[in-house]
Amino acid sequence: MTAPDTLTILAPDGSLKGSEPQIAPDELLHCYRTMVRVRAFDDVCLKLQRSGRIGFSIPNKGVEACQVGAASALAKTDWIFPSYRDFGMALYHGVTPTDMMHNMFGNDLDTARGRQMPVHFSFTEPIKFVSISSPLGTQIPQAVGAAYAMKLRGEKTVALTSFGDGSTSTLGFHSGMNFAGVWKAPVVFLCQNNGYAISCSTAEQTASESFAIKAKAYGMPGVRVDGNDLLAMRAATLEAVERARRGEGPTLIEAVTFRMGGHSTSDDPTRYVPKELVEEWAKKDPIDRFERYLKKKKLWTKELGERTYAEAVDEVSAAVKVAESTPAPKLESIFSDVFASVPEHLRRQGQAAFDLAARKGDAGAGDGKFPL
Ligand SMILES: Cc1ncc(C[n+]2csc(CCOP(=O)(O)OP(=O)(O)O)c2C)c(N)n1
User: Fold this and answer.
1) CA-CA to 324 of 20 to 30 Å: which in 43, 155, 251, 266?
2) Whose CA is closest to 130, among 90, 96, 184, 101?
3) 371 and 263, same structural domain?
4) Does one domain contain both 305 and 238?
């Protein structure tokens, strides 16, 4: 089988392979800073998890250009139906590290009020970043339904949904792709092919010559893009977004990238990822590549790079201080935000639980007793 064409604009050495997109310096630097902030957020969260201050995190190292390049093609009025490895999409559009850190601690200011795992963010402002759900692929038909509703309402908005190579084996992927094609829904499918679905390699995931080719069966274009090339990711997503906005229907983008860290903080990738593969992909690091490009444009120096990372770590550390000192959600919150008006039987059960907690004391972490 011949390797399918893959769109690249920036070569790993930072030189241009294709024609240079016209992007203002401020925007290039915003994309760069966002990728660095994702890396800083990752680094801080790993330390928090290892020291027992949060329970879990998901590393993004290596896939920052996929997230930020794709997000940069969206307007604030568009909707994102993300995977759990899309921190950069939220940060690019102005979600703050503090907003995200509240979720990492599951505190009272977490938009999910501690009912979700860490990294299961949801935001309505400054962009619609729909709640991440752990069951793989469920965001795909949700995005298609939302996009179809946008079309029926005559809105000019677009939904982008992001998922990994492993998620293409879910029913959600196939039914979502099918009906998006039938309805010409304004949706962009972003498959981040990062080499593995936990320990399952892409060779064990599909017999197709690529993930992009699966688009053909559903009557939509499929494009393969170098996922470590921010400019290519932005250009391909922009084309797909514009096509969707013109009413011409969906596109599947396969971003070819590599997860340079573990699947999650509970994973040890050295058990299944060959060392040589990690070394090969380290040379294609998306942030290093973008720095080389910015340097050629005289927009980057080593000093600027170091300062950008240090500022990002300070910003994320400040977010940790705020989130860690924000109280946990109150017991009473377990019945809020679900019903417009709480049904009588739940009200009775809830009140009985609250009364018992008031009499016996709420369960405290690590006290070895369960007073309820
Ligand atoms: C329906 C379902 N099956 C299995 C799992 C367990 N699981 C969690 S993450 C994961 C790997 C997903 O890989 P991929 O979709 O490629 O995304 P990546 O983690 O590589 O970004 C699996 C199998 C799950 N969460 N949901």
Assistant:
1) 266
2) 90
3) no
4) yes
Quick check: CB of 197 below 6 Å from ligand 1?
Answer: yes
Pick from 136, 170, 175 the residue to mutate for probing ligand 1's pocket: most ligand atoms within 8 Å of its CB: 136
263 lines ligand 1 (CB under 6 A): yes
Prediction pTM value:
0.95
Could you tell me the maximum CA-CA distance found in the chain, to the nearest angstrom?
A: 70
Q: Give me the pLDDT at residue 3, please.
A: 58
Give the distance (Å) from ligand 1 centre to CA of residue 247.
32
pLDDT, tens digit (0-9, with 9 covering 90-100), for 229-278 = 999 999 999 999 999 999 999 999 999 999 999 999 999 999 999 999 99
What spacing in Å lies between the alpha carbon of 170 and ligand 1's midpoint?
Answer: 10
User: Which positions ≥6 away from 75 have C-beta within 8 Å?
Assistant: 157
Q: In this predicted model, what pLDDT tens digit does every residue of 292-314 receive, in sequence order? A: 999 999 999 999 999 999 999 99
Reply yes or no on whether the pLDDT at 38 is more than 60.
yes
For residue 208, is pLDDT > 60? yes
Average confidence (pLDDT) over 28-49: 98
Both 277 and 235 in one domain: the answer is yes
CATH of the domain at 206: 3.40.50.970
Specify the residue with its C-alpha closest to ligand 1, atom 12. Answer: 197
For tokens 């939302």, the residue is 146
pLDDT at 364 over 60: no
100 exposure class (CB count in 10 Å sphere: 0-12, 13-18, 19+): buried
CB 10 less than 6 A from any atom of ligand 1: no
Query: Which of 198, 200, 205 is the pocket-test mutation for ligand 1 (most atoms within 8 Å of CB)?
Result: 198
In whole angstroms, give the CA distance from residue 358 to residue 282. 55
136 touches ligand 1 (CB under 6 Å) = yes
How many domains does one find in the chain?
Answer: 2
Q: Rounded CA gap, 129 and 93, in Å?
A: 10
